[in-house]
Amino acid sequence: MADPERAFNQDMESVTHTVTLTHPRYDYQSFLLTDARDFHWVIILLQVPKKQLKVSVDDQEHEPLAFFKWISQGNSTSFTEKESFPIMKSVDKLRHALLSEKHFILFTDYRNLVLRRSKSQT
Q1: Counting beta carbons within 10 angstroms of the beta carbon of residue 20, is it exposed (0 to 12), middle (13 to 18) or buried (19 or more)?
Q2: Measured distance CA(104)–CA(33) in Å, rounded
Q3: CB 24 within 8 Å of CB 97
Q4: Which of 9, 18, 22, 36 is the most exposed place for a label (fewest CB within 10 A)?
Q5: What is the DSSP string of 77-103?
Q6: What is the pLDDT of residues 42-74, one digit of tens each?
Q7: How far is 103 from 53, CA to CA, in rounded Å?
Q8: Phi and psi (nearest 5°) for 32?
Q9: CA neighbours within 13 Å on the CB side: how many for 91?
Q10: Is the dihedral of CA 74, 93, 21, 54 positive or negative?
């Protein structure tokens, strides 16, 4: 196992054993954070009380709902597919929390997805 992969696994192991997950609350705002690297993907689903949305992110009470990770066996997909994968996987695995009466806010670092969404809104 390569050093970056080992470090990633240790970090995820630490998070999964030290953080207590909570249940979705429909009076809270949900945030989906996704990230993809060469050989792994990470998904984090959080919720924040709506009354705290105008407060600094550092001062908000983030409640974790879910953490997922996947490790790829190869690098055969395109960059767009790689960045899109955790978003699609989130909707599949977290449907009960994401596709409710309220909407969720997606945070991704993949600029092409952000630009594609922005152009379709205009």
Answers
A1: exposed
A2: 10
A3: yes
A4: 18
A5: S-HHHHHHHHHHHHHHHTHHHHSSSS-
A6: 889 999 999 999 999 889 999 999 888 877 766
A7: 14
A8: -110, 120
A9: 9
A10: positive
Single-letter amino acid code for the residue at 4? P
CA 20/CA 11 separation, integer angstroms: 16
DSSP designation for 50: G
> Within 13 A of 101's CA, how many CA atoms are on the CB side?
4
Distance CA 103, CA 7 (A): 34
Give strand pairing partners of 84: none
Q: Look at residues 30, 43, 21, 50 and name the one whose alpha carbon lies nearest to residue 97.
A: 30
- Model confidence, pTM: 0.69
Contacts 24+ apart (CB under 8 A), 18-26: 19/64, 19/67, 20/64, 21/64, 21/65, 21/66, 21/67, 22/47, 22/63, 22/64, 22/65, 23/65, 24/65, 24/96, 24/97, 24/100, 25/63, 26/100, 26/101, 26/102
